[in-house]
Design goal:
The structure holds 3 protein chains of 3 kinds.
Chain A lengths: L1 H11 L1 H19 L9 H9 L5 E2 L2 H22 L4 H21 L3 H32 L4 H5 L5 H4 L1 H15 L10 H4 L10 H23 L5 H21 L5 H25 L1
Chain B lengths: L1 H20 L2 H25 L4 E3 L4 H24 L2 H20 L8 E3 L1 H26 L5 H21 L5 H19 L5 H30 L7 H6 L7 H14 L7 H5 L5 H10 L4 H13 L3 H21 L5 H22 L2 H30 L12 H4 L1 H15 L4 H19 L1 H29 L16 H19 L1 H17 L5 E4 L2 E4 L2 E4 H20 L6 E3 L23 H20 L1
Helix pairs in contact in B: 1-2, 1-6, 2-5, 3-4, 3-7, 4-8, 5-6, 5-12, 5-16, 5-21, 6-7, 7-8, 8-10, 10-13, 10-24, 12-16, 13-15, 14-15, 14-20, 14-24, 15-16, 15-20, 16-18, 16-19, 16-21, 16-22, 18-20, 18-23, 19-20
Chain C lengths: L12 E5 L5 H9 L22 E5 L7 H10 L5 E5 L1 H5 L21 E3 L6 H17 L15 E3 L2 E4 L12
Parallel strand pairs in C: 1-2, 2-3, 3-4
Antiparallel strand pairs in C: 5-6
Helix pairs in contact in C: 1-4
Classes of the chains: A mainly alpha, B mainly alpha, C alpha/beta.
């Protein structure tokens, strides 16, 4: 029962943890730009303010799909934290992204439609890499379960360095950070799929972003195996790397993103897979 | 059991003959009742069949089959002369020569010509149930076609005759009988593709004819090599019995070539794409749910012999390549039926790959994919027919108002696409099992396993992009009114949709039962070894793979229930506001994005041809 | 928990230029920069009326931009405040009386804070926004409509339809 306690706590507190990570990220981003930045609990102030707005939607299907996107992302995170099958986790994440894409397509809004197009294309950029990484983990640990990776004696990072680099190159796409944030390009498509949500319905999408942070950092934590300190170290390193990359790079367009991801990240993950198969 | 199985062969033939002469109302009743009867028969056979049933027919039937073969080839030759098609003529001449030579050297056979095992019963179920639904659908579809009423009766008659031929194909043991039935399906395909008799239909029907005839030549060559190498009679059971003999690879490779051509793998995919000009029930029946499933069926029959051979390696590599290539080619298409055709080719490649790997879990995966893909593609193609008839839409870029004018149709198409892609639906389970077992494959066949995993991962992502692209056009709605009024498409169309939807949802709910009760026994018998299925707590273990049931059940609520609820839910006392368009008030229509694959297509074709050559070479060395 | 007190902790701004010369716009963007940093108050510049609380308007309202101004104002959920930045937005400024301007934002939408200056300074803008936050805390969620050029929102099927609020004066206006 005890080894279920920590994952269940993490699952229940995931929005809070994600919110704190997001708040801390805004502070770090501001400090990198020589500004002061908002207070740490700013995401929660945003949350509470959004709860107090007059409710407005475009139509009910759109709002409902946004809420279900949040619910299914929480569920995908729950399966990952409980040590479930990695391929299933990747497909459940795909399910939640598909719900937000459907929400984006369901309104007759140009920006929403463009954002949904771009989100669909960015799926093509990151999903094959994640599946190859999951298969590499299978080659090492003999099982597709995340719990096998969490309990592995030796950190997976030593045998899978290239896969870790591929994961780092793919995380900006998932978390919608520069240079790969075409899906949510604020200056181009004013937020993409999030644009038609407002008030409490926007909270669902906003909180889903926080959950995405927890999801991605858990994927990074997988590479540390049994070693919790190394895992925390990897997460901190990834955090600063992502923010430094976000603050210092410009956005590329979707063709360049696809080309980069499918040539560089995919090749790195594939070479790592070959190394794991042949040794 | 014998009378039931023979009635599965004879009832469609009798119905087919009767449909040519009966008046319309009686014909309708006959179609509906015979569909129900056939479905019930196949279900009963499937449930009650244990072991393998061999049965034979009197010797004069052999002569009848030979005569039928020759008559068929004469008909093909006449077509070649009449339409001045040198390719068809060439293939007919080759087949004729091959057939006559084979007939000369064919030994007197002692074993029985028909074999019905659980795999055949599984295919019976798929064929008869899906064909029944499509036959009822085509009652209305063909009624609205612009042709003489005799041609309409002719259409239904050929449809039922095709059902009989398909039942015969999956139960024949003797390879010469198999050749006849294979060529009869080619004939049915030719007649039905050219049904509308315009220039494009005739051209595409001829393409389908000669490409499938190449498959027929391959079967004849396989029979020749079996006899030449001295294995005895040309039957499937004999072939499997000689699984470790030397020189067995060449007949296996030739039969695999026939399977790959029937399954429209590259470079032979042109015929399936051209077949989309046929009336939609034809596309649904022949070219997605039943006839092209002969391809994985042949490989499944041969899998005990094919496993771990160089031929299997080349087949796996070829189908992995086709999976990615077909998915990428689909991104350039606008015509809705062609998108579905490319996606069929891609998923057939996955099924053939699973069958060629031959381990217990992959065979289960292939069976799961065959059944669920058959149901989902049937649903999608029948909807393509509804779109064509009721809404007059063929290109997917015209479909951006469908969410408002046809909410039920767009909901069904969305669920159809989702059922091919995402948990908890069966096609996803098949894909998931395939990724997991390819991981296991990579432990011994290292480079092949790695490349194939890459192909499946990449192709799967491209297919998701493709489905989202099309789904996006279907669900756009304005927010003026929340109340959904389902459009009236008519009893037949709406009824068949509800039946298929119900089947898909039921099979998802009953997936654990289906796995233990149906798929695994079929796989065990096909492989000849028992496949362990254990329910342990909340997981189901199939062989070495673990399938967690609880996440799949929750995914059931998260996906199809969500989409259906999203259509009906209404938030009360919430303002409705316009979409953000920078304050403008303009009207616009959406299209979708397309990738141009013109530069890649020659490379795909060339690689496909190289793979086929490699297949024959691998069998010879 | 008094949710209204969180409104001033996380005000999101929407910045709209109703035909101005961009002078005030540059100053507003400078507020987001490192020197004046209004993100320390939790303000983000969203590009989207549906997710913002404060509407910063610059420029005299030209005839082309007035319908869009009213539409954007209608798409913002209550509680909302309007801050008109610059002399042109307050009274028409240099362009008062011209044939194509209407003489200030308050001809069309109710304004809560007027920030004057021709090229308003960032310090003035921040001062104005902070005053607007105090007003924002007092507001309710009752619907606020524009002063002119609006169609009555329809109530149908248990929902208020706020679509296409700006009325068209001339059909050929596009």
């Amino acid at each position: 029962m005890n080894d279920l306690l920590i994952p269940v706590l993490l699952i229940l507190l995931a929005p809070l943890i994600g919110g704190l990570v997001y708040g801390f990220e805004r502070i770090i981003k501001a400090r990198m730009q020589r500004r002061i930045g908002p207070p740490l609990l700013q995401p929660f102030y945003d949350f509470l303010k959004l709860a107090d707005k007059r409710k407005m939607i475009v139509h009910s299907a759109h709002a409902f799909l946004g809420i279900m996107h949040f619910v299914s992302l929480w569920f995908a995170l729950a399966v990952l934290l409980l040590g479930g099958d990695l391929i299933l986790v990747i497909f459940l994440h795909l399910l939640s992204t598909s719900l937000i894409i459907l929400a984006g397509y369901s309104t007759r809004s140009i920006f929403s439609h463009l954002g949904a197009n771009r989100t669909a294309i960015s799926i093509l950029a990151y999903e094959p890499v994640l599946i190859i990484i999951a298969v590499s983990i299978f080659m090492l640990t003999g099982s597709f379960d995340a719990s096998a990776a969490f309990n592995w004696d030796q950190p997976l990072l030593y045998k899978m360095p290239l896969a870790f680099i591929a994961l780092l190159l793919v995380l900006p796409i998932k978390l919608k950070k520069s240079p790969f944030d075409v899906a949510e390009a604020h200056q181009e498509v004013t937020g993409g799929v999030e644009i038609e949500f407002s008030g409490i319905f926007f909270e669902a999408v906003y909180t889903a972003k926080w959950l995405d942070y927890v999801f991605c950092y858990t994927l990074v934590f997988l590479f540390a195996g049994n070693n919790i300190l190394l895992g925390i170290g990897l997460m901190v390193f990834t955090f600063f790397y992502l923010n430094a990359l976000d603050n210092s790079s410009a956005r590329v367009n979707y063709k360049q993103m696809l080309r980069f991801s499918l040539t560089v990240s995919f090749s790195l993950a594939f070479i790592n897979l070959l190394i794991n198969i042949f040794t | 059991m014998y009378p039931l199985i023979t009635s599965l062969f004879l009832v469609p033939v009798i119905v087919s003959g009767l449909l040519l002469i009966l008046p319309k109302t009686v014909a309708r009743i006959l179609v509906i009742t015979s569909s129900l009867v056939l479905a019930a028969l196949s279900l009963y056979v499937f449930i009650n069949l244990d072991g393998v049933l061999y049965f034979g027919v009197p010797h004069y039937v052999n002569d009848l089959v030979a005569v039928a073969d020759i008559v068929l080839l004469v008909y093909f030759g006449w077509i070649a002369l009449r339409r001045r098609s040198w390719l068809v003529g060439l293939m007919t001449v080759l087949q004729f020569g091959g057939l006559l030579y084979v007939l000369k050297i064919l030994p007197a056979d002692h074993s029985l010509q028909f074999m019905v095992d659980k795999l055949s019963a599984f295919m019976f179920l798929l064929i008869n149930v899906i064909s029944g639904i499509i036959a009822i659908y085509s009652l209305r579809y063909i009624d609205e076609e612009h042709c003489s009423s005799f041609r309409k009766k002719h259409f239904l008659s050929i449809l039922f005759w095709f059902i009989a031929v398909m039942n015969l194909v999956v139960s024949s043991n003797n390879l010469e009988y198999f050749f006849l039935f294979f060529e009869l399906t080619t004939l049915a395909s030719f007649l039905l593709i050219g049904f509308r008799k315009d220039e494009l239909s005739v051209k595409n029907a001829l393409t389908a004819l000669w490409m499938n005839q190449v498959g027929g030549v391959a079967i004849l060559a396989a029979i020749f090599f079996i006899i030449y190498n001295g294995y005895g009679e040309a039957t499937f059971s004999n072939l499997l019995a000689h699984a470790s003999a030397s020189g067995i690879l060449l007949p296996l490779a030739l039969l695999s070539v026939a399977a790959l051509i029937k399954g429209a793998q590259l470079p032979f995919s042109k015929w399936l794409l051209g077949a989309m000009v046929a009336p939609t029930p034809v596309s649904a029946l022949l070219h997605s749910s039943t006839m092209v499933k002969i391809a994985p069926f042949i490989i499944l029959r041969l899998s005990p012999a094919l496993k771990d051979t160089p031929v299997a390696t080349v087949v796996i590599a070829l189908t992995g390549f086709v999976f990615v290539a077909a998915a990428i080619s689909a991104l350039s298409q606008d015509n809705f039926k062609r998108i579905l055709a490319y996606s069929t080719i891609a998923l057939l490649a996955l099924m053939i790959m699973m069958a060629a790997v031959g381990t217990p879990v992959t065979i289960v995966a292939a069976l799961v994919l065959i059944l669920f893909h058959g149901m989902s593609k049937c649903l999608l193609f029948l909807n393509a027919g509804i779109l064509e008839r009721v809404f007059h839409l063929k290109q997917s870029s015209d479909m951006d108002r469908l969410g408002e004018s046809g909410p039920f149709t767009s909901l069904v198409i969305t669920i159809g696409f989702m059922s091919l892609l995402l948990p908890p639906f069966g096609a996803f389970i098949g894909k998931w099992l395939s990724i997991e077992t390819l991981g296991a494959l990579a432990t011994d066949k290292k480079l092949l396993g790695a490349l194939v995993i890459v192909a499946v991962a990449g192709g799967g992502a491209v297919l998701s992009l493709l489905y989202f692209k099309v789904m996006g056009l279907l669900i756009a709605r304005t927010g003026d009114h929340d109340k959904i009024r389902f459009e009236k498409t008519g009893l037949v169309y709406a009824g068949t949709m509800y039946v298929l939807l119900g089947l898909i949802i039921l099979s998802v709910l009953g997936l654990p039962l289906l796995l233990t009760g149906y798929f695994v026994p079929v796989a065990s018998q096909t492989l000849g070894m028992p496949v362990a299925v254990v329910m342990d707590g909340w997981n189901m273990h199939i062989g070495a793979m673990k399938l967690p049931m609880v996440p799949l059940l929750i995914a059931l609520f998260l996906l199809p229930v969500t989409i259906i609820t999203a259509l009906f839910i209404r938030f009360k006392n919430v303002d409705r506001v316009k979409e953000y368009m920078c304050g403008e008030k303009i009207n616009y229509s959406f299209s979708s994005f397309y990738f141009s694959t013109d530069r890649a297509t020659p490379y795909f074709t060339t690689t496909g041809i190289l793979f086929f050559v490699a297949l024959i070479v691998a069998a010879l060395i | 928990m008094n949710l209204a007190s969180y409104r001033k902790k996380s005000p999101w701004i929407l910045h709209y230029n109703a035909g101005g010369c961009n002078g005030c716009d540059i100053e507003i963007l400078a507020c987001l920069g490192p020197k004046y940093d209004i993100e320390r108050f939790g303000m983000i510049n969203t590009g989207n009326p549906k997710q913002s609380d404060i509407l910063l308007v610059t420029g005299p309202v030209t005839k082309r931009s007035r319908e869009r101004l009213v539409e954007i104002y209608a798409q913002m959920p209550e509680p909302k405040v309007v801050v008109s930045c610059g002399a042109c937005a307050c009274t028409g400024g240099v362009f008062r009386g011209m044939y194509n301007c209407e003489g200030g934002v308050d001809q069309y939408i109710p304004v809560d804070v007027y920030v004057c200056g021709c090229g308003t300074r960032p310090e003035q803008i921040i001062d104005g926004v902070v005053q607007a936050l105090g007003i924002l805390e007092q507001k309710t969620k009752a619907m606020e409509v524009s002063v002119r050029l609006q169609k009555e929102p329809l109530k149908e099927e248990g929902q208020i339809n706020r679509r296409n609020i700006a009325d068209q004066i001339k059909p050929a206006l596009s």
